[in-house]
Structure formats: C-alpha cells, structure tokens
Amino acid sequence: MQSFADILGQVFRAIAANKLRSFLTMFGIAWGVGSLLVLVGLGEGFRSGQHREFATLGNDIVMMWNGTIPAVANQHTGMRPYWLTLADEAALRQLPQLRAVTDELQRNDLYQVSQWNNTSNAVFGVEPNYATVKFAPLAQGRFLDEADLAERRRVAVLGYKTSILLFAGRPAVGESITVNGIDFTVIGQVGKISRGTNDGDDQRLYIPVTTMLELFPYKGDNVPQDALTSIQYQPAKRGDAVAAVAAVDRLIAHRHGFDPALTDAFQQFDSIEEEKMVGAIFNAMDIFLGGVGIVTLGLGAVGIVNIMLVSVTERTHEIGLLKAIGASKRSIVAQFFWEGLLMTGLSGLIGIAISAAFMALLQYCLTDKMPGWDPPRLVPWSAALALGSLVLCGVAAGLYPANKAAQLDPIEALRRE
C-alpha cells in the first residue's frame, strides 16, 4: 500500500512532467483569485474611506443651515430667507428626540495675525460641546469651556494648519494673536482632521460663539442679532435620525412661520442616512464582486477538470501498468484527486499572497493621499471565501477524473498507446 508521501511524490512528478500546461492552469486560477481579492479590497477601501470622511463631519450627526421659504411648494419664486438663531438652538435643546445640539457661526473674512505670520482662515464661533458632537480632536492645551462662553472671553483654539501658518512650528498655546485687530489668547490646538490636499477643515480658528456674536456678528437687513450659520444635532436614538429630523423640522417651521411640509425650506444634511446609503451600495458591490469571483473560480475548476481528464487519457498506459502490478483503485483515486486539489490550492495560495503583497504596497504608497478613499486591503472574509471555493473546486476537479482513472480496465489500458 502506498504511503501519503509516495502519492504526493507521484503528484508532483506528474505536475512537473507538464510544466507549461500546469503553469498556465495555475496562473489562471491565481490571477482570478488575486483579481477577486483586489476588487473586493478596492470596494472596502472606498467604504472605509467614506466612513472616515463622514467621521470628520461628526459622530451620528445631522446638520442644518439657514434656508429660504418658498411661497408655493416646489416653486423657487418669491422665496423668503430665514436665519437660524441662538434662540432656535435653545429651543431645540428641549426636544426629547435629541441628545446633543451645538452650533456654528462662521466668518471667512476675518484677518488673523501673530508675531510671526498672518492668514485669513475661517473663524468659527462655537460652544464647548462642539468638540464632542463634531470631530475636533484636541492635540494641545484645552478646548473652550462654559466659563469662556459665559464671560465672552477672547480665547482661541487653532486648527492644525492654522497653527502651522501662524506659528511656523513654534509652540502656540499661551501665545497671543489678533483677529481683525482684537487680541485673543491661544488656549489649545486641534489635531489634524483633513486628509490629502483637501485641508479646509484644518484651516480653522475656534472662538466662543458668544464672543463671536459680540465682536463679529452677521450684518445686513433683517438679520437677527443672534444669527448663526448652522445648528447641528445628534438624535436620541443612535443610528436613527428619522424621529429627530421630523421633530426639528416641526419646531423650526413653527418658530419661523411656515409649514413643515415645505421640504424645500430646509437646508440640511443627514450624515446617518447618507452613510447607510453608502454602506448599502458597497454591500451590493461586495455581493456582486463575490459572485463574479465565485463564477470565475468555478470556470477555473472546469479548466482543471478538463486538464485532469486530458492527463488521465495521456497516462492510460501508466494507469494500466500500476493496476497490473497491484495498485488499488483507492491509490489511483488518491493520486489524481490530490493532483487536482494541490493545483487549485497552491494556485489560490499564490494568488492570495501576491494580491496581499500588492495591496500592502498600495497601503504604503497611497495611505492618506486621496480624501474619501483608502487603499485596498486584504479582506479576511474574501480570502476565506476564495480559499473555501478553491477547496470545493479542487475536490470537484480531482474526484471525477480520479474515478474515471480508477475505473479503467488494466488490460484495456495496457493495450492503449
């Protein structure tokens, strides 16, 4: 009775005897596996990149801006503008459907000067909870607190790029700057938010919203003294903003005198629903790519079955000789079965290894280079799916030709040339 080592030795000799045919067959399977993993990895790169982009907006957040009220639904004539205000925000805080509310008052026309440099980045008037509702990771010092807000202190927190522009790598916390000629003390610095060259979120300066309203409010006809740029909130139910959005729309419509059914009057962005939509798109993409990959691997299995059948035909005389000297059907089956399984298994492992190395190289070269996209990475479930499919393909590719070889009559096999 042959040992397993003897069977494997015969298998490798049979594969080596037809080097080009074996190479092309294995190359096709390895290419299919590698392509499947890279395609799924690209989809996951887009998914994770979009998730990171949403995370820079804030955690579980809905954003609302000033809007215009149409005179007639779905008509853009005779529209009346309205401004969100600090009073609106205070009213929203009373809604049980919300767990957190914050605001922004943004000006892009204010000039900032330090003793080393000057710039004109965006200035945001915000509240202390802004750093938790939005994404503003603190790198140095502290963020604004309630005392800063209540006492309308002239303190500032610098964005990552703003700190570099104004202080050129020098320590900024504790230093003084001027905003439109008014002195402010730097109390903190926010870490890097943006990715790639799109660094607008890093070019910011944060001051208390009460100080902003006192020194740099919006000007213009019919503009309230406490007018804001945006109000942003988190729903009480995590991951579901439907009830929160409906409650906010009703309250804002009531306070500004219009029907909440006028959807054109609201300017808002629901990051929760948007992220769900993006996730659904990428789930569908993963299913599609996985299905295409399995079909591709199935075609590879058909190719190996064909190659193995050709191998059985070519080795008919050899099979007859083996059976004539006492080889059992089981050993014949084992030899051809392991040949098919090893060809698919080795091809798959080579494809996984090469695709993993290629994606690791892309990770090294392209990480943080393209906003909204992460380089592809090896996804464990896709590698497991590919390997599992290959095992099934290998079994299918080996069993049928192996059984065909085992059924050959040794006398008839020896007569064939």
SSE inventory with pairings:
Blueprint: H1 4-17, H2 19-57, E1 62-65, E2 67-69, E3 80-82, H3 86-92, E4 98-107, E5 112-113, E6 118-119, E7 122-126, H4 130-133, E8 138-141, H5 146-150, E9 155-158, H6 160-167, E10 176-179, E11 182-190, E12 204-208, H7 209-215, E13 230-235, H8 242-256, E14 267-270, H9 271-314, H10 316-324, H11 329-366, H12 380-406, H13 410-415
Parallel strand pairs: 7-12, 9-11
Antiparallel strand pairs: 1-13, 1-14, 2-3, 4-7, 4-13, 5-6, 5-10, 8-11, 9-12, 10-11
Concise account of the structure shown:
The chain has 417 residues and is of the alpha+beta class.
Q: What level of helicity do the residues show?
A: 40-55%
Count of domains: 2
Distance between the termini: 27 Å
Largest sheet: 12 strands, mixed
Please provide the count of β strands.
14
The geometry reads as elongated
- Count the DSSP helices: 13
Radius of gyration: 34 Å
SSE order = HHEEEHEEEEHEHEHEEEHEHEHHHHH
Written account of the structure:
The chain is α+β, with helices and mostly antiparallel strands. It has two domains: 4-55 and 276-415, no CATH class; 71-261, no CATH class. Helices cover 53% and strands 16% of the residues. The chain contains 13 helices and 14 strands. The chain has helices at 4-17, 19-57, 86-92, 130-133, 146-150, 160-167, 209-215, 242-256, 271-314, 316-324, 329-366, 380-406, 410-415, and strands at residues 62-65, 67-69, 80-82, 98-107, 112-113, 118-119, 122-126, 138-141, 155-158, 176-179, 182-190, 204-208, 230-235, 267-270. Strand 10 and strand 11 form a beta hairpin. The chain is elongated and about 105 Å long.
